[in-house]
Design goal:
The protein folds into three domains: about 25-280, Beta-galactosidase, Chain A, domain 5 (Distorted Sandwich), CATH 2.70.98.60; about 290-390 and about 400-445 and about 465-590, Alpha-Beta Barrel (TIM Barrel); about 595-700, Immunoglobulin-like (Sandwich). Helices cover about 20% and strands about 30% of the residues. Bound molecules: alpha-D-galactopyranose.
Length: about 700
Amino acid sequence: MECPPDRLPLVRHWGSDLGPLDEEAARAVCLIGERSGRLSGELDARPPSLVPEAWTGWTGRPGLVGSRNGRDWSPRFSGVSVRIGGTEAPSYTEAGAAGLEVAADDAEGLLRLTLTVEMLASGLLRVRAGLVNGGGTYDLQELSVALPVPTHAAELIDFSGRWGMERQAQRLEFAVGAHVRENRRGRTGLDSAYLLHATEPGSDFVGGETWAVHVAWSGNHRHVAEHDSTGIRLLSGGEHLLPGELRLAEGEGYTGPWVYASYGDGLDRVAHRFHSHLRSRPGHVSPRRPVTLNTWEAVYFDHDEKRLLELARLAAEVGVERFVLDDGWFGGRRHSRAGLGDWTVSPDAWPHGLQPLVNAVLEHGMEFGLWVEPEMVNLDSDLARAHPEWITAARSELPVEQRNQHVLDLSLPDCYEAVRRQLLAILDEYPISFLKWDHNRDHVEAGVRPRGGVPGVHARTAAAYRLLAEVRAAHPGLEIESCAAGGGRVDLGILEHTDRVWVSDVSDPLERQRLLRWTGQLLPTELMGSHIASPRSHTTSRTHDLSFRGATALFGHLGVEWDLGATTPEDRAELAAWITLYKEYRELIHTGTLWRGPDPGEGIWSQGVVAGDGTKGLYSLTSLTWCPTGAPPSARLRGLDAHRRYRVRPLTVGSPAAGFSAPAWWDEQGVVVPGSALARVGLPVPVMHPEQTVLVLAERVD
Ligand code: GLA
């Protein structure tokens, strides 16, 4: 970074490790070349800083947008002070993992900008900008931070999605113009951009220089890739503010969300930095993740005590360690049209309260978990009837409905308090170890009714974080899952307050292969809820063998989403074997490094997790379709130590994959092969029918 005293800092390089640089070399290196009006007809411009400003001649999107009634809209920040680890920065230093605090003033515009730039031990970079208003009312519309990427980052990869099909990767040319992913859903979104990458064309999991940004915010937000006609390419991000949402009075300030940035040669290495960052957090989950059963697809709203007691018994029998009672236990919630907002146990559904079920769950040696959706309300609820003003709306009419529900305004202190009290009461009453915290609708036209409908998404997002933090502080050890109609709230903001995400409402393993693969671009396996569901998927109606369902779910935090009451003893025995396998390998799966691909082709996907010390790796080889050539290719096993030898053997549970035909090396004793050969040539994949997975274990022998 270059931090001149008279302008905001510039990032000269981020990405590959350049080794030690002396001052002269550091001054020469720059991702963006100088471009100072050398050609007639060009502005005498300077490269944009972390918060691009128009005064430098930048004609692209400014980092700060706002004004005082049309004045003070074009800032020039100078008088820059830079501190590293609390002390004034020397004129030249190499700091490694460190934090930089920057403060700068726009004396004319009466604004102070702060920037925190942190290089984390994981190698992630994160930046956050703040603004303090020094006079009059300042209407803040946008505060984003931008990072330059080089010209050869000529392709973009980000994500889209919908319910049940979250995180569909899209690739496009990084052409001149702006690729703007603006979210106005008030939650991260089933279609969220998730991570915006700029990459060398043709990059994949294995290779290709790749830069990525991620906005750690669960409300409205924006990711932008911008390429201007002078050749500058920026990746930027920040919160998306609605009109008039943040009017800063004199002395008031705003701090934007962290914008995370990662780099790697190949998408895997970009992901690894996020994984090691998340794993380095002090409260990160234990790799011995408890096998979870969630009742949703087993019983839906049919909360019958006898049936659920039987489900709990069967769950314990197959090895489940956490039993989660999903939607339907409270208020008038016998269907999705009523009850949200009334967080007391329904005497209709549970005449004896939840105690008999909770007791049974605990007696079976399992933890008890409960579903809640505290930010939402049905019109048919006691809460909505008593406080219609707590329902968000921008006009006199209510916003369009989604799943028969509306958004509660947690930014209103009384509303917040009412929800908080109900949540704490239920947590005090029952020994609850886990909350599945859902958020099933978008915030559209989400105004604050008692304040004439002014936008309130920013305040509501902050309130949701506060509520999560308060609940956790009151119940240390409580785990919380972030669910939003499946994977609609997956970001590093919510993960500061939660312990896993529900990846998707679709547990069909064919869809889950893709969902886990791409959700893993940000999250390590232990944070992705991954359940074995019934043979015929409730969402897609496809039918799959348990071997495919089990081997797919294994690469996440394993659970069950299946009506065990409708299973045969043989089904349960095989399910129990999968659970046993997970328990045996969960520490490897949840601490190892994830390597996706290279996909051998012919409809086969491969992936693996390799222990940090390189002693073993667990791989899956999945046939998505018929192999068009009839002769499956070889799969290269990545991540092992090239200089050591490994015994590679199949791991089989229950019946073999359908249409299975073993290659010569497929043997219980395994075959001993050097890591270098496994990585470069690999081993032939067995012949399998479509939609089958086999597992392979590689263990170091020397
Ligand atoms: C959402 C969740 C599901 C389930 C239902 C309950 O759709 O994603 O897993 O909890 O709500 O209503």
